[in-house]
Specification:
This protein has two helices and five strands. The chain is an alpha+beta fold and 81 residues long. Strand 3 and strand 4 form a beta hairpin.
């Protein structure tokens, strides 16, 4: 298993994040709200996952995962969405 890619929210664009998870890497994003927390994004070959401190979200398509990444502000291009 490859080493997870660790980034801060807004550090990479959605395309780069998607490329990493579709290549089999876990992407661990440090983000801040009221507190700092980590979110892990991954892909098992058929389902995309967004593992937050409180919930595991499943996305059935690349489109859904891209929308989640942008909506949650994980990517540099989130403001363009």
């Amino acid at each position: 298993m490859s080493t997870p890619l660790r980034i801060s929210a807004g550090e990479l664009e959605t395309d780069a994040i998607m490329a990493a998870i579709e290549d089999g890497r876990r992407v661990v994003i440090t983000t801040t709200g009221q507190t700092e927390y980590e979110v892990t994004l991954r892909y098992d070959g058929s389902v995309y996952y967004c593992d937050t401190p409180t919930r595991l979200h499943r996305h059935e398509s690349e489109r859904e995962m891209r929308a989640c990444i942008r909506k949650m502000g994980y990517a540099a291009d989130a403001a363009d969405a």
